[in-house]
Amino acid sequence: MNIIERHLPHGLGSQIPKTIIVHVMAAEIDYEGKRLSAWDLLNKLGWSAHILLSTDGTRTRCRPDNLIAYHAKGFNTNSLGIEILIPGVYNLDQLKAYTAKPYTLPQAQMDVLVQQIMIWKHAHEIESIDRHSDVDPARRWFDPGEGFPWTGLLQRTWSCS
Phi then psi for 69, rounded to 5 degrees? Predict the structure, then answer.
């Protein structure tokens, strides 16, 4: 398992995770005319996630499972957040357009996503796996977007133990 420890300080307190929230963001972001990595953008905005998942399957652990991460407003105190990184440089409007159309994840990334969800399911009493758009549809309808292979992910993770 390729896991890089690169912690983000954004989150307050401990938690007992009950849900997994799947997110998507660009690996690099065009933010206010600057090119930032996903980790740098999260740090700049005071946000965090538990895991950033690169296209090659490398996981960057940003927060321990037992600590809160700021990844889903209103759902941070009992959830684990995983950010699936889309290759390339995108601004927010470009990312919204990208996730609206069907897209596939590289096999290594999808396999490690499934593996991480299964690790979390076995380590914690997980009650649900949600998309960020499920818990915040008014603001984050594009995260991970209509084009994300959600049904396939659920078939590989939720229907088995």
Answer: -120, 145
